[in-house]
Amino acid sequence: MGESEEHVHMVSSEVNAFTFFPAPDSEEDDREKSVVSRFSYKVPRSTHQKNSTADLTPKVDEDGDLEVVRPNNTGEEKNLYITHSTLTSLELVGQQVWRGALFLADYLLYLGQQIKDEIVLELGAGVGLTSIAAAMVTKKVYATDVDRGEILKMIKSNVEENKEHINGEVIVNELDFFTKEWKESLKQILPEVTTIIAADLVYHNTLTDAFVDTLKDLMTSGKDKQAFIALERRCVFTLEDMETVAPCYDYFRKSLDALVDSTIEGWNMELIEIKENFPQYFCYEKVRELVILKITSRKC
Prior knowledge:
Number of helices: 7
Radius of gyration: 21 Å
Helix content: 10-25%
Strand order of the largest sheet: 8-7-6-9-10-14-13
Shape: globular
Order of helices and strands: EEEHEEHEHEHEHEHEEEHEE
Distance between the termini: 58 Å
Number of strands: 14
């Protein structure tokens, strides 16, 4: 790198896939090369046995004692094969897989039949893993992200590669938080959206401002909606505070609180943190810093 060239800070997520190999169109010497990784998951019983006719009649053994049938939350193991990057510049982190995406995927699979009729819009879909999981249990998913780098191409490729896992429909579209001039194709689908999802979009305050602004526009138009936002509370030690803090998360949470508390004519909004101890279906390191926030908007 010449002295006049600007240094580009490279980052890598902490998600370790069990197997990976170079994507067919990647270059071995590319610092932002793509790989294909296998992400294993256990199929929730409520998903792959939703039409099950299992006999649930109480039974007794030969001594006349009631036989206790213990429920099993998961079924067979399956694999998603996801093309993604392992190392990128900060502006292309969406090309990587982050824990928040897997955490939110777990929660959507857990909800299962509760969201089967939802029309889902994912903001910042990245490589599409969470959109694919959403499409396992809902009837339609719009996977959106900024048209930068290989992001939209990766989503389309991953949806096609994993179509056998998908029960609903996945449609890929561009949505940039930093512009209000959305494409006509995007405007046309917004009125039918009932659920918004987003995962791991916190890494600087300018992006947070743009995301919250976009979320406000989406949540206060069309139908009543719910939004599920997953993120990891990343902590750092600062000399200024002399303690471990999570400034990006704190700013994000305060911004969402301000949105919900604001007066938006004709709408009521609420925010809660999901506290349920739901099952883990995907295989990854589920750390305690992972959080899911739920926002609802209702016409009043």
